[in-house]
Amino acid sequence: MALPPPRVDRHTHLEGSLDPGWVRREAASRGLTVPDVTEAFWRGEAHSFEAFIGTFVFACGFLTSRASVQAALEAAILRLPPPGAQAPRGIDLWISPHWLVRERQQITLNDLWRGLEAGLAEGRAQGVRIAVIIDAVNHFGPDHGHEVLDLVLEDLPPWVVGFSTGGLEKVPFRQWAPVFERARKAGLRLAAHAGENGPASGIREAILEAGVQRIVHGVKAGEDPAILELLVERQIPVDVCLTSNHALIPGLTRHPLPRFLAAGVRCGLGTDDPGVMRCDLPGEWDKALNTGLSLEAAQRLRDQSAEDAWSLQIGT
């Protein structure tokens, strides 16, 4: 199949984007040793959720300055297909400012914003458009969601375009509805990690009760034809992250991406935490093709990855 890969990474986390080589050098400069489990995870030899969390936390612990934030964003840019005369390139970038600024207190909000601005400028210089989505943690609950909005809304940069929840899907989305509504009134688009580590019903609830306009992962939708119908009826895009899903969702042997596309669900490819799970967008495209997509389905996946990307619609 000769189709080139999509040129937009529809879902990647700043905190999971630092290049392992950069992390090793930074750790050495601080007199720290990279944990064995982290090296094993980077080599693809460890696949437990605990190993992922340990690697994620260790790596993003180095996001302590404007330069480190810029380095993470530049690493994400490098994982796109190379520049060319084809369609524009873009990144829909998730960030967790409350976790970095308030909970871990490892960087100031001003330095986080300034580092992102520098990375955005580098992206523009390379023809890459970027949209930033603020991520809150579902299992911390709605009060945490309001704290996230309290932190960022007072002086929100224009390139922040969305609000999302991630983490463990333990708190029903109906309880998060007031937080999503507050974010919507502030002019932010709404997304949610749903149907990843929670039930398929969470996808329906996120859409119908929380007003979410975009689903991240959504793997469990493959278990319920009614939810697939809802996604198609409402034209809700789904961000698909194949490497991440196979690594972190127990028992996932065959990804439902072909089923999604056959049902008419709008899908796009993302890398999720590519500095942790060592992947890039061309590699995710190869994995998508290896799921057995028809040429027509692959073309739709490629086109919709760009058509529904917030970075290309309203990004900087």
What does this structure look like?
The protein contains 16 helices and eight strands. With 316 residues, it is of the alpha/beta class. It has a single domain (8-18, 63-314), classed as TIM Barrel, CATH 3.20.20.140. An eight-stranded parallel sheet has the order 1-2-3-4-5-6-7-8. Helix 10 links the parallel strand 6 (215-217) and strand 7. Helix 4 runs parallel beside helix 6 (109-125) and helix 7 (142-153) packs parallel to helix 8. The chain is globular and about 50 Å long.
Span of the ends, CA to CA? 32 Å
Going across the biggest sheet, name each strand in turn: 1-2-3-4-5-6-7-8
Number of E-type strands: 8
Q: Count of helical segments? A: 16
- Fraction of residues in helix: 40-55%
Radius of gyration over all CA atoms, rounded: 18 Å
**Secondary-structure element sequence?**
EHHHHEHHEHEHEHEHEHHEHHHH
Mean pLDDT over the residues: 94
Q: Based on the coordinates given, report the CATH architecture.
A: Alpha-Beta Barrel
CATH topology (level 3) name = TIM Barrel
Number of domains: 1
The global form is: globular
CATH superfamily: Metal-dependent hydrolases
The proportion of strand residues reads 5-15%
State the name of the first-level CATH class.
Alpha Beta
Report the biggest beta sheet as strand number plus sense, adding barrel if it closes.
8 strands, parallel
- SS-based structural class? alpha/beta
> Unreliable stretches, pLDDT < 50, 5 or more residues?
none
Characteristics:
globular, 8-stranded parallel β-sheet, 316 residues, TIM Barrel, alpha/beta
